[in-house]
UniProtKB/TrEMBL annotation:
This is Succinate-semialdehyde dehdyrogenase. It is an enzyme of class 1 (oxidoreductase). It comes from Brevibacillus panacihumi W25. The gene is gabD. Keywords: Oxidoreductase. Signal peptide: none annotated.
Amino acid sequence: MKEKSMEWNHMWIDGEQVTLQETFEVYNPATGAVLAYVPNGGERETKQAIDAAYRAFPEWSKRTAGDRAGYLLDWADRILAHHEELALLLSSEQGKPLAEARGEIAGTAYMIRYNAEEGQRLAGEIIPASNPGQKLMVFREAVGVAGLITPANFPAAILAQKVAPALVAGCTIVLKPAEQTPCIAIALFRHLMETGIPQGVANLVTGEPAAIGNMLSADPRVRKISFTGSTEVGKILMRQAADHVKRLTLELGGNSPVIVFPDADLDAAAEKIVSNKFENAGQVCNGINLIYAHKKIHQELVDKLAERISRLQVAPGLAPDSQVGAMIDPSYLAKVERLVADAVEKGAKVLTGGRRLTENGLGNGLFFAPTLLDEVTHDMELTKEEIFGPVAPVLTFEDETEVLERSNNTPYGLAGYVFTRDAARMFRMIAGLEVGNMAINGTSLAYPQAPFGGVKASGIGRVGGKQGVEEFTELKYVALTFE
């Protein structure tokens, strides 16, 4: 078994597989079994990767966008050709149901293709000049070496969301995947290397997060950091990046509300809220954190939510009936248990779920029952922290001013959701909610062609859309006099 698990004992540096004697264990969160042994890299390996990326940058950045895009399109094709095996690996390593893993792998290929195409449309501009015989021009140029740090909740899709725009823009990269889910990153890079992409352009280092992150921040040759993860780590990276004034894209934590007004289609609202809240066992950065139900429809909405949530099937991701899988990490599960216990102690009512699941063969895994809490109040910790788990708290409100004030009373500003049929109210909520992303009468936000990112403590910059590619470029302005 260990010999099979050693299949993942390699990083990718300067186009070569690099194995290490020192490894760390990757676990299947549904069973607690060791899934793989992965290189425990650190400062030395990160420096080697930066060296390779720095050497490769001049030649790679001078290639045409179409040339660079060709490698990405080939990569997407190879991913789709191995769709099922990658989905099985992702489900086993991350814990999500196989159906969700299949969707993520398909989305990964789509994300790569979109960015490959969008990168070929990047353009500068010519500005009307102030003097005769003069041209004012703006060029877009690749930033340089980019350090990319990805999370464990969507380890394939977010990898593509960072790697593809960076490469098509002309940057070279050093990727550090989450320590809980490095295998899917290694597998995806294997397919990228098979495209024949030049040595040093794309590098992957696994290991100690602090050591790798510190090197990426400390080396002045790394001109850009793109990170998705917690606000706490994002703040650390901001402080470290300040020494070299590095460019940053930070997609951080949230406290996303959904606000349901009396005129909403409650069946549609309940269906979409449950779909959003319990995707990936609630481990979604823009997932709903708080449900605000107007007092007039509170009980009706709660009944509809409870009926749907109680029917969700919790099982290991590879089980055919799995709808909610295991949580990724023991610390995430412990946090959910703490937040639910605090809410119950302060008066919240558990309508369904509310506990860790250990029966029916789930005892060795990290499973928490899909949970609905009613009578939630703002003195409870789960209203202030990102839950990042399968727990749906319901609060009530009476008017727009009140719910906007309560929704905005947080340091976060990632996403917000509103259900109403009143067009004027829609625009008042668009203007009033302090978030970077918003959905009305729906709960889906992540599309490759749209810019995604937060305000306040939820982040800086955007991923997705043309803006996501532009994040990896610098503007160069030239005033040319020719007479």
